[in-house]
Design goal:
The structure is a single chain. This protein has helices at about 45-55, 85-100, 180, and strands spanning about 15, 20-30, 35-40, 60, 75-80, 110-115, 120, 135-140, 150, 150-155, 160, 170, 185-190, 190-195, 195-205. It has about 210 residues and is an alpha+beta fold. The chain has a single domain, classed as Jelly Rolls (Sandwich). The strands form 3 sheets. A 9-stranded antiparallel beta sheet has the order 1-2-3-12-8-15-6-5-4, covered by helices on one side. A 4-stranded antiparallel beta sheet has the order 7-13-10-11, with no helix packed on it. Strand 2 (about 20-30) and strand 3 (about 35-40) form a beta hairpin. The longest helix has 14 residues, at about 85-100. It is globular and about 45 Å long. The mean pLDDT is about 90.
Length: about 210
């Protein structure tokens, strides 16, 4: 009999509460744990993140080498850690939601996909080199509705998540069973009509911030 591995998030029911938000679970896969969440961000928070980021975008890069690649054709930027009250609030909410100290969080990243732009299937954790403090989970928050395309898809699981403003998809890949981690292979489908804005919060296994 296979024993189910421990998860980072401990679920009881279909709602999760942080200090300032009640978040609804509207979809779930158990292994690896993937959650589709609603009401993670308010409409005002989504709009504010886009407004703060839009003049700071640069061509997105991939991996620890920070290389430009056709694998990823979007643009991106990172906020400074705790840059302002809005960023602090969202970082704190993410920390409470994921049950991981904010000191383990990478800076909040904003991604922008124009029509035709995409991110081919990849892992969020680092797969090469001697990584001492690897990523263990991702929270991908959608900042707008996409007219067509732009889904986050997991090809190994035949799962596709449609962007919806204020909603998010969470997935974790810290398991001892590497096959479970590999099932989190995911990509961003090309945006067919409109554009896509996303905020991503990655968490590390150990403290990552100098605080």
């Amino acid at each position: 009999m296979n024993v189910k591995e421990q998860t980072i998030i401990h679920l009881t029911g279909n709602r999760m509460k942080t200090t300032d938000q009640e978040i609804h679970i509207v979809g779930k896969i158990d292994e690896p744990l993937i959650l589709i969440l609603e009401n993670v961000l308010s409409n005002l928070e989504c709009d504010a993140l886009v407004d703060l980021a839009k003049n700071r975008m640069e061509r997105a890069k991939i991996g620890k080498s920070h290389a430009i690649s056709d694998i990823r054709t979007s643009s991106s930027m990172f906020f400074d850690e705790g840059e302002n009250e809005l960023i602090q609030r969202i970082e704190t909410r993410g920390s409470e939601l994921l049950n991981i100290p904010v000191s383990h969080a990478e800076p909040l990243q904003i991604l922008h996909y124009k029509s035709g732009e995409q991110y081919q299937p990849h892992y969020d954790y680092f797969t090469s080199g001697n990584v001492v403090n690897n990523r263990i989970c991702s929270l991908v928050m959608y900042l707008n509705d996409v007219d067509e395309g732009g889904e986050t898809y997991f090809p190994s699981l035949h799962l596709s998540v449609t962007p919806k403003k204020g909603s998010a998809v969470y997935f974790e890949y810290f398991y001892n069973d590497y096959h479970l981690n590999e099932l989190t292979l995911h990509g961003g489908n090309p945006v067919a009509v409109g554009e896509k804005w996303v905020a991503t919060q990655w968490m590390r296994r150990q403290s990552h911030r100098q605080i």
